């Protein structure tokens, strides 16, 4: 996510594949929001967008990022994405 006016990185969710032979299995390594933009609920919005994208692409998700773990704990409706 980028601020269109200043072209500044506002936030991102980093989710590389776990194994290149299984491209639909990803790990959420990091959820980042630029300190200048924190406190606006953007990390939650980024995770919501990520979950929608992961659902559309049939991803199986592992969680490494503490924020992502908390997000999934608070949102049981996205538990279907969690890798077994």
How much helix, percentage-wise, in residues? Answer: 25-40%
Number of separate helices = 2
Structural class: alpha+beta
Radius of gyration: 13 Å
- Proportion of beta-strand residues: 25-35%
Query: What order do the strands of the largest sheet run in, or round the barrel if closed?
Result: 4-5-7
**Uncertain residue ranges:** none
Output the helix-strand order. EEEEEEHEH
Ends apart, CA distance between termini: 29 Å
Describe the structure.
The chain is 29% helix and 31% strand. It contains 2 helices and 7 strands, in the order E-E-E-E-E-E-H-E-H. The chain has helices at 42-56, 66-74, and strands spanning 2-3, 8-9, 11-14, 17-19, 22-28, 30-33, 60-63.
Keywords for this structure?
single chain, 84 residues, 29% helix, three-stranded mixed sheet, globular, 7 strands, alpha+beta, 2 helices
Question: What's the short story on this structure?
Answer:
With 84 residues, the protein is an alpha+beta fold.
